[in-house]
Amino acid sequence: MCCYQGAAPLLIPFLAEIGHICPSTHNPADFVLETLATEPEASAQMSELCQNGKLCRKLDRMTFRGGRKPVLHSDDSIQRIFVEHVAKEQLQKMEFPTTFLTQFIILTKRMFMQSRRNSVTLWIQLAHHLVSAVLLGSIFFLVGNDGSAPIVNFKFCISVLVFFMYTYIMIPVLLFPMEVRMLRREYFNRWYGLKAYYAALTFSSLPVMLFFGILFLGITYLMSGQILEWDRFILFVIYGILTGICSEGLGLAVGSAFDATNGSIIGPATAAPLLVLCCYGMGFGPYIEARMKALMSLSYLRYGLAGLSIALYQKRPLMECSQDFCLYADPTLLLRDVGMATDTYYMQIVGLLVFIFIHRLIAYFVLRYRLTSEFSNKFMSYISKFLKYR
Question: Cβ atoms within 10 A of the Cβ of 378, count?
């Protein structure tokens, strides 16, 4: 129960309205604690009058936008305290004591410090990327310029895509629900705003992802024997990192809405149909139906796979052929048969950026909904029961 949510100068008149006069020699905060400890019914009174902390938080929106009067469940005297005696500037100060930029800088520093101190997690991620890169490079060893096995190299692109998809979806799905519990407490105390926290969270994850992602892609690119051209490698890295950022946004959306147990089911279940859509059309690319093309455009993995394939195959010389005849020695034929002949670099980048924005926006609003006082735990319990019965 929240007994008071507002500016410090308004605490004494608020207490007076419920019949508890704070002596002039008393500290108001101590007086509140003494009152709550000695008179149990006072907590229920105070919580009811401030609507369990909703009143002040909703007042700015209800009072000053459009000139609408606030709809309060308390009596006129409480409305007078919070409406007539509080200026708009004071309301803004009640929200957060620092600016967005200050909050963003402090939160970013804190998140970097937490990552540095949690060295075990970094070592686990390093081992995961190194072992996966070596294994993947060994499976597709030197197939990059082999004209007799272009489909194998296309499977290499799919494997890279799957790695970035599941790795960066599952990390926030498993870890972010624990972060939400701490966030709810600090946000309720009005230490910082959700926008600043979310911006810091997004920014702080980029350096680690860039370092480990480039390390993974560099090892696999060299071991798989891809053509050694800087522009191709840079594009290959860009598409891989963008896929990872997009997957992380999807993982944040799932981690914001569900706990780790349910999220570990929802995350892969959401990614699986997207993966199926992205691989559709292998062998009959020019004949993909219009409705399937529309469905495929809803999968961000399709843009990632097309980008990785274009980076390796578009505008390159004929591949080496160790047999009498290699159908796909000309890379343009392979792009045609997988349905990527008309795709361009920029279209895939724009598509991934759009999905990054959509996933992050969904995650933000889900998180915001969970943190608002109107959030109902019953809704989440119904979802949990549904998943258990399923």
Answer: 8
Please report, for residues 48, 77, 78, the alpha-carbon distance to residue 72 in angstroms, rounded to integers and kept in the order given. Answer: 11, 11, 9
Checking phi first, is residue 341 left (phi over 0); if not, alpha (psi -120 to 50) or beta? alpha
Give phi and psi for 320, each to the nearest 5.
-70, 140
Q: Sorting pLDDT into bands at 50, 70 and 90, what band is 55?
A: low
**With DSSP H G I counted as helix, E B as strand and the rest as coil, what are the percentages for the chain, rounded to 5?**
75, 0, 25
Q: Which residues contact 14 (CB under 8 A, 6 or more apart)?
A: 4, 6, 46, 49, 50, 78, 81
- In three-state secondary structure terms, 119 is helix
Distance CA 28, CA 265 (A): 49
Residue pair 301/161 in contact by the 8 Å Cβ criterion: yes
Identify which has the larger pLDDT, 251 or 339.
Answer: 251
Give the closest residue to 55 by CA, choosing from 18, 21, 37, 80: 80
Q: Of 197, 192, 227, 232, whose CA–CA distance to 98 is shortest? A: 192
Q: pTM for the whole thing?
A: 0.72
| 200-215 confidence digits (pLDDT tens) | 999 999 999 999 999 9
Exposure of 322 in the CB half-sphere (CA atoms within 13 A): 6
| pLDDT, tens digit (0-9, with 9 covering 90-100), for 308-328 | 989 888 888 787 777 777 777
Distance of CA 28 to the CA centre of its chain: 41
Tokens read off for 307 = 């980008």
